[in-house]
Fold:
Amino acid sequence: MKAAGVVTYGTGLDNPDFSAQARAAGLHASRVRRADELEDALQAAFAHDGPALVDVHTERQELSLPPKLTLEQIKGFPLFATRTILSGRGDEIVELTKTNMRQLSLE
Structure:
């Protein structure tokens, strides 16, 4: 949505515990809240003989970038930021910036 210039709307959801639901159905399940837990959870899921679910939580404002950006995506993000600020939700831009600045390696 951000790359298309669309202001976030109707996506503020509280995630249920999918791993608890999977375990209740008899599946092997893990819930991952931190990146350092992911490898162990995936190894356990792949080692399990049968269906498995790995419920991975991510930051709400984490940006995912495709390997190659299109011109439309590059133009769409500033449009999203401008529309978000003009709609009075500049706090969302601040949250997005803080979330993604943690991922940068500054050398």
Notes: The helical segments are 18-24, 35-47, 71-86, 90-101.
